[in-house]
Records
---
Amino acid sequence: MSSRPVLKPEATIGILGGGQLGRMLALAAARLGFHCHAYSPEADSCAFDVVHDFTCAPYEDHAALARFADAVDVITYEFENIPAETAAFLAARRPILPDPNVLARTQDRLVEKNFVKDLGIATAPFASIETAADVAKAVAAIGLPAVLKTRRMGYDGKGQKMIGGKDDPAAAWAELHSVPCILEGFVPFEREISVVAARSRDGQVECFDVAWNEHSNHILKTSRVPAPISDDYVVEARRITETIANAFDYVGVLAVEMFVVGQGSGPAVLVNEIAPRVHNSGHWSIDGCTVSQFEQHIRAVAGWTLGKPVRHGDVEMTNLIGTEVNDYARWLGEPGVSVHLYGKTDPRPGRKMGHITRVTPAGDKT
């Protein structure tokens, strides 16, 4: 992988997906002198507003995919649910980073959980469900409360159901359309944290500071950095993330979401999910760090040396969800606050429309 030529400014980076992550990747790439070409089936993709070129076509359109591949020097993606056939078609024509094999492991929650387990990294207890008989077996093995999750296509709380002691697990599985699932034991965690890390072609790994994440209706609302956890937990969270990145032979930025469960007989930090892409909990780095997660990702896929992330102070990132974006003006005059609007036109409930970042310099708590 390191034998691939290092891209020079004015090379073109292809981005699969046209949402806000693709938009911010393109903005970071432009700062380094690269062009970006976004590919998305959605005509209103907000990344289209800021790229050098774009293709609006289905992921199954081989002719459009071939033209896209011919127009770029390397391909990356902003979300992990790229169809496997699309990734394979493009990989035969242009380098795709991170490797599509990573997608195969992270698109399926059961495969991902087994991958993490095989690395000797702790997760919540889990069991596979494929048939009606498996539901009762999984509940007997895991116990309740537990969380039922579809193995594929789940994010921001989609495709999952909490099951309490008085709930009917079979009915919950039916509500998820009886598709293959995993049942995860509920973890009584102290905090949800994440580590965003970049890995270069030659194996250099740079971790951003651990973020403390708070969710509202299963959607990330606020990330605070540094996370208020002990140094031992910070070291462990970073070790876990580096182990996963190296095991994938990863190139680019990934995020590992974890639970801090505190002192006890078992591990203090458990892995929840892996996101093989830039991540919402890393948005703080745009304004709060010497190098952002988006620039790190572009550097990695271009074959450049990664930056050393140095925080400017204490940072808090808050998502603007749905109609909250209409109140953006209140933040414009706030000292230390940066406003990011994604250019989306439909502020429907649960949709991420933008975010704000507040940076408080170290030692300044006013």
Note: Residues 12-96 form a domain with the Rossmann fold fold (CATH 3.40.50.20).
---
Amino acid sequence: MRTKIAHDGIKNLHYEIREIVDYGHALQKLGVPITWENIGDPVAAGEHVAPWIKEIVRNLQNDDSTWAYCPSRGVSKTREFLARVASERPGGVKVGPDDILFFNGIADAVDKIYDLIQKDNRVLMPSPSYPTHTSNEGKRGDYPHLQFQLYPKNNWQPDLEEIENKVKYNPQVVAIAIVNPDNPTGAVYPRKTLEAIVAIARKYGLFIICDEIYAHLCYNGAETLHISQVLGDVPALSLRGISKDFPWPGSRCGWIEMLNRDSSAFFREYCDALVKSKMMEVCSTTLPQMAIPAVYGDPRYAALKAERSAMFERRSNQVFEYFRDHVPGTIVRPVQGAFYFCVAFEDGVLNDRQTLPIADPAVKAFVEKSVEGVALDKRFVHYMMASEGVCVTPLTGFHTDILGFRLTTLNPDDAKRARTLERIGDSIRRYLKS
């Protein structure tokens, strides 16, 4: 080629949740069986979709319109339904059908959201942070990430003073992004924290990006609270989807609520750009959109939400109690949402000399080469995968300096989950003593 093609920001695209899979597959080819605890796919992990939801989808397939294009913004009746539901939230911002915009999954929405922000503007986001957000922010401007810390010893909550100072002394910040409930930590932002973040956005003329894909999975005393319920007059984008709710991750069906889009001419122009960008793709997939009113509007859905939240509460508490009681050198806190569990290592317990026993010489050589120059938590994960066959995601893969890892609470078999925890815990104990 006569010139370079890709722009410099491409080097910031990292998605360790999937990248670790390549390493796992390489180990499998060397004969190491792998237990996958890295990807948040409830169906692949063994959760069965409720028969009544399957029936709704089967019946929709018989309607020829589900095989056709839909309006670029999304199926009209579905947008009307979602706007009505959003507007009925206590204290919430009023939402109209044209404030709803569908995408092929939340990741597609995130890509558009960050791409359409001016190159030199910045979005402040948490550390650790979901890599789809941080990677797309880094791709646009090729700048170091601008982040505020989530603190593991404070239930993974932020320091509000730090957030305001990051905004105040970085005038190029135009938005604050959060994931609530959070991925990877499983923390839920309490009402006072959300209100304080909204107050900072109002004071400095920012908008908020709130990824609420796990909003229907809150437990352990956490309140299910949408950003629209504390927003007042502040502009925001709320990101929603069905991948974790039905669950139907393979549908790639998500949408954004454009909240208070007339509160600012700048924000209105930005929202219009999101709509025009969607029109360039014609539309998002029709069938999953058409299923939404039938599933969410079914009286059985409330019971399904409660049942799944209770299920993940029980599983996450099992994980918390195991690490709290049996694995020194780690920091854990009870989870309040989603279906992940985040384990942080105490400062100073990891070093670049620690290892785990690996009997196969070929596997050992492969691992020793793979850990050259990597972060200390990734080094541990690579050794554990080769020695014990458990795949988790290094926490530094979520754009943070905190060392640790994320695992899921998706395995429906309690006994298997307990054995997996024992394998992880035993690996940590042996690794720290090596």
Note: The radius of gyration is 22 Å.
